[in-house]
Amino acid sequence: MEDPIISLKNVSVTFCGNEKNVTAVDHVSFDIQKGDVFGIIGYSGAGKSTLARTINFLQRPTQGQIIVNGQSLIDLSAAQLRNSRKKIGMIFQHFNLMNTRTVEENITLPLLHSGLSKVAQREKAERLLKLVGLANKKMSYPRQLSGGQKQRVAIARSLANDPEILISDEATSALDPKTTEDILTILKKLNTELHLTIIMISHEMEVIKSTCNKVVVLNQGKVVENGSILDLFLHPKEVLTQTFIGFGHQNNDVIQSLDLRPKETVIEVTFINSPNEDQAKIVEIIAVLGVPMRIFYSNSQFIQQRVITNLILGIQGNKEQVAKVLRQLKSHRYNYQLTGGGRSY
Ligand SMILES: Nc1ncnc2c1ncn2[C@@H]1O[C@H](COP(=O)(O)OP(=O)(O)OP(=O)(O)O)[C@@H](O)[C@H]1O
């Protein structure tokens, strides 16, 4: 495998307060490969924004190393750091545009000391505006634009210095679902056409799920899961992750509402690709064992052009019979979880 474009090694950020210190980022390590759309998900206060700012050294880590393109940022002089930062664009929830400047001026602002002539700067702005589908708005002011249009301008501006990496910090959080989809489509296009590596920070799994190939889940500054988005859905390790992926919430509701029979145990099975065939196969596997079974609930989601299905079953039998069912599921490579919050009898 190629060397990662970004590598975080044991990074922590502690803010010293008068009353107590806050460790916003706590011993975080992960690698991002070139071309990844890498998601960072966590609730408010989890440390996402601090981590984003740390990745481009706007925030100095208290400890640990950040290596971008093989170069440790801690070793760079202020001038080298400024240069290195140009290779990392950023977009934010509230766009951060200059309201007194036109759209074109907002985009050419980062090019002020680029050495490009005014004409070349304007040409570049025009090219970038075309890329984000706003070619006709270059003389408008931000106040004349919708939220989605403002975010497109912010994206164009973030690309002015030809970055290799784009950090999107909750860039769609202030937008409606349709506009969110439009912005995510633009970001995906930039990833596939310009090979831009994207770090997508969000508290919404819908955003992460529809764009990212990899993801880390952050909780109280710590990475609690790290892997491919498919793995996250197939083998969520943490309850927090299950809550994010939605199965957790829905499944808990379903399980709590079940009217279980005596000796009935609830099992959640998760599988990828063929919802109907797999469901039929699971029914068959259990039927062969002669253990009574009920299907309570089934839910499929599209992730990375694949279908992930979650099935909630009730198995009526003694401990040995349940163990037999689980062994069979395991031998057929189905992921399962015994659930029910103690609601198995
Ligand atoms: N400059 C600062 N000084 C002191 N504490 C800070 C500072 N910046 C962030 N924090 C604290 O660090 C923790 C993580 O904050 P951060 O903004 O990184 O989280 P977040 O996941 O991005 O949340 P949100 O989505 O609400 O912005 C919080 O407890 C926050 O209060």
Automatic annotation (TrEMBL):
Fetch the SMART domains from UniProt.
AAA
Which domain of life does the protein's organism represent? Bacteria
A Pfam family of the record is ABC_tran
- Work out whether the entry's keyword set contains Transferase: no
- Per the UniProt entry, the signal peptide is none
Q: Which residues form a coiled coil?
A: none
Q: Which UniProt keywords apply?
A: Amino-acid transport, ATP-binding, Cell membrane, Membrane, Nucleotide-binding, Translocase, Transport
Which SUPFAM superfamilies does the UniProt entry name for this protein? ACT-like (SSF55021), P-loop containing nucleoside triphosphate hydrolases (SSF52540)
Drop me one GO molecular function for this one: ATP binding
A Gene Ontology biological process in which this protein takes part is: amino acid transport
- The record places domain ABC transporter at 6-245
Q: What is this protein called?
A: ABC transporter domain-containing protein
Organism classification, top ranks?
Answer: Bacteria, Bacillati, Bacillota, Bacilli, Lactobacillales
